Amino acid sequence: SVDSLLYAKFSANTYFGNHFFGAKVLFSIFSPLQVLLVFAKEDSQSNGFCWACEKANYRCSLAHTPESALECFSEKHHDLVIVDHRHSRHFDAEALCRPDREEASVMPLINAGFNRRYVENANMMACYNELLQLEHGEVRAQFKLRACNAIFTALEQSQDAIEITSEDQVIQYVNPAYEAIMGYQQGELLGKEIIEVPKSEKNKPDLLETINTCIRKGKEWQGIYYAKKKNGDNIQQNVKITPVIGQGGCFSSPDIQSSKHKDRRKGSLDVRSTTSRGSDGSSQRRHSSMARIHSMTIEAPITKVINIINAAQESSPMPVAEALDRVLEILRTTELYSPQLGTKDEDPHTNDLVGGLMTDGLRRLSGNEYILSTKQPHHLPSHLATPLSLNDIPPRIAQTMETEGSWDFDIFNLEAATMKRPLTYLGLKIFSKFGVCEFLNCPEATLRSWLQVIEANYHSSNSYHNSTHAADVLHATAYFLCKERVKQSLDPIDEVAALIAATVHDVDHPGRTNSFLCNAGSELAILYNDTAVLESHHAALAFQLTTRDDKCNIFKYIERNEYRTLRQAVIDMVLATEMTKHFEHVNKFVNSINKPLAALEENGESVKSILTSPENRILVKRMLIKCADISNPCRPLELCIEWAGRISEEYFAQTDEEKRQGLPVVMPVFDRHTCSIPKSQISFIDYFITDMFDAWDAFADLPNLMQHLDNNFKYWKGLDERKLHSLRPPPE
Ligand code: AMP
Ligand code: ZN
User: Fold this and answer.
1) CATH numbers and ranges of domains, the chain
2) Which family does it belong to (predicted)?
3) pLDDT at 719 over 90
4) Active-site residue, 465 included
5) pLDDT at position 6, please?
6) What b-and-e string marks burial along 375-404, b requiring 16 or more CB atoms within 10 Å of the CB?
7) Which of 152-161, 432-441, 633-642, 711-720 has the lowest mean pLDDT?
């Protein structure tokens, strides 16, 4: 393109002869870089590079025509050539660098084969940064290769016999002088252990041991050694053996008739494998695979992002390029959304909660089979077969539910009034309020049966994960669905999906965490491959229970496509309650919704498109059910305390069982004898709740929840400051 400059990078000749390399290679590494600028005429851009060369202490020559460029290059062998590609009228930069045009082309002289474009920018610092990037990247690498080449050339030319072995005494290299003196061909020796090569019996019996001891200490050994040639003759040699410790293995120059060289590092093995790779063609194959990867047509978005950043780095000043390097490092990790805990210094409660809720049994104990009771799903108890209709709900229960529209609604009252069946009754009321039966086109009796079946499959023996928790989450979900912002972004089908998801989201919960199930090798963990075990089970079982029997099949009356959409939304929401994905969901919500909304609102622009895009609606629904699921720290203090007591008791029961069964204890702080409940609540709020509800409040506007959260947090802090471990302070 006309507005860009073209770099062609050259590497100078290899130097032959061992008398050369000492002086010449060192010279080329430590002498200033030679830069050739090929510019049709001097302008601000060429000046920019000239000044940049000066600043970087490079030597710079300027040529105005291809001919003078070639002449200058053949004299000085520049390390870097910058060709002006803007003034195509004056000369053809492409042709100058094109490999297929023999005459007047510099390409045959280029060893590096490295081209790079620089978009016109006369700023001296931009030029300077570009030069530095080139020097520290490709040019230096070329110098090293050149030095390596020179050293190998010197070895090949040396009159002294030289042998290089690896730490485990496998021969890596012998030079031609060695071949000539010892009568072996290289191929007969490479890859062989020294011990396999016949030894002369003229050496003192303990000489080899002496040498090895010396080398193992990292010391050089020098002395007289009898070697056996291939033809059986013994020759006396003055030998020097030098162990090489350090990066990559380097050489010590041999100065005696024959020299052995021990490389104590595995590095020399690399030398060997590099050579063999070069010859077996696999390096070529890998090279072309790499090229294919770069030209992949189906690019993952993350690959696109990385490529864009890479491209931006090319023309960025050093500090920006370095900052982008750090960005790339983060992007390349898979755990983009999970903050990394420094396990040691972190609070043990946070650690245990994270370990217990956010890993799927990584601390597994092998061979310890624990199988959860393989009970059949509950069917409807016969006395409930023809349940009450909404109209004939007992007055006491109906009265308890009157305040259902308030956030401060007391679910435990309803639990008591319904004999632990709050889900069915609250479900009937809330589903009717949202017109779910009308949407699904199903009789109210079907909904009632469905609610009863689902509730029957919650374990009333769990202190936390029972149907009261499901009813609580349903209540929070319904409350959130009434918020203006939420109403703006969701469709009726989303609302129905959210209510169904909340109802079923923990069905058949065994009162144990995913980690526990994985550690115990439970049937469910095996069925779901240790991934999202419980959430997968809740979702799958919910659909099994629903569709197995027409009597409770609330999906029976909707169209197939609508069913598929609804089903997908329910599954997505139930799976979103899995805590390993907590930060992913929260961060996506913040980045895709909170931030763009804030920006638009600042400019007074319409937010509708952000709220209603299909991707964002999914994020809203996930966030909604997540917040409903763990909203107990935002409930009025008394309710919050009750929930904290219940979850703690469930965790304690798990720890008890882990100890009984000899399973790994997933959350050691939740030991009923030692646990500080206030501390555990402070950690839970700090780590999982605060940020999430800040984001949700910013979206849905929930001042009362935030006020409760604040109060509750202070309450736990107060207890903790008094060093109390219990749910409540002792009576005065
Ligand atoms: P779910 O199992 O769907 O209810 O997911 C919510 C997770 O958060 C569960 O694993 C609970 O154990 C955990 N959790 C909820 N409330 C609290 C709380 N107050 N303290 C500690 N953990 C909690
Ligand atoms: Zn839950």
Assistant:
1) 2-149 (3.40.50), 158-280 (3.30.450.20), 297-331 (no CATH), 351-363+386-721 (1.10.1300.10)
2) Belongs to the cyclic nucleotide phosphodiesterase family. PDE8 subfamily.
3) yes
4) yes
5) 44
6) eeebebeeebeebeeeeebeeebeebbeeb
7) 152-161
